[in-house]
What we know:
Strand content: 5-15%
Distance between the termini: 72 Å
Number of strands: 5
Structural class: alpha+beta
Number of domains: 3
Helix content: 55-70%
Amino acid sequence: MEHIYNKVAVFLFCTAFYIADNSNGVIPVLAAVILSAAYSYFDGKKVKMAFTAAFCAVCAFLPELTYFLPLAVYDAVFENWIWVLAAAAAGIHFQNLPIMTFVLATAFSGIAVLLKHHSRTMQKLKKQYTELHDSSREMAFRLEQSNKELLKNQDNEIMLATLNERNRIARDIHDNVGHILSSAILQVGAMIATANDPAQKENLAQLNKTLTGAMDSIRKSVHNLHDEALDLRGEVKKLFDGFTFCEAELDYDIQSNPDKKLKYCFISIIKEALANVMKHSNATRVTVKLHEHPALYQLIVQDNGTAAGKEPRSGIGLANIADRVASFNGNLNISSEKGFRIFVSIPKNTEGE
């Protein structure tokens, strides 16, 4: 926009110079406007050189056009110096105006050069500012994405550390307290077998019952800890590590910790689906997607095989998958178009039967 303002200012300056020198007629003004507008409208170095040459040619027949030489200089400077000099030479050679006119025209041309230089400098600065602004916004966006990814990874690491700690506690209870209680139960049983006093036997039997109840309670707690500490992603990764039939890809995106029954359901479905690929498919690639949405979990197992041995929804394995999904009030869709595909969606906050 500043370029246009400068160009209009140069044109008005030249027009005032033309009128102040007691010149008359609008033809030089119109010719200057037409040539300058055409110069700005068309792109291309050759085209602009042609319009600069046209200015020189018109000066030969219209000497008054020399008053608008600063406008031609503003257009052509920093692009085609040779044509600017040619225009100046043509304007001076083909007219009989006073010498002061040429002096002023030359001075005004110098001012036009300064304005053009200032305009080009401002354009470069604006371009650099825009690039810097865009670059900073892109960098800020990338930084925000990196922060989100770091937070996501941090949450995953915290959850994994929590699960590992639960597993450790479960193992410690099982290995230490569980073994001690088992030994105590055996010792009490031996004492009951060797005791002769009925009252003593009754007391030992009651103690044995108490220890057995404690053992059952600890065993249940250990199992619950182990089930809650089950790392779904880790277990699915183990299945993939043991799957060598064809190329396999896992797309896992679950941030929460699903119920233990649902974890076992997903593991069983994936295990059955991979087994079906090995038994009934000639696939060279299988993809497993396990995603979490606001209201449901989604599992997709798809291969690119074309030789499924059974029709969709037939076979014991697929029937087991259907039963597991139904126990969570989920939806199951099986198709064999463009490869075999199992699509499972299970709503959240549901407990399997």
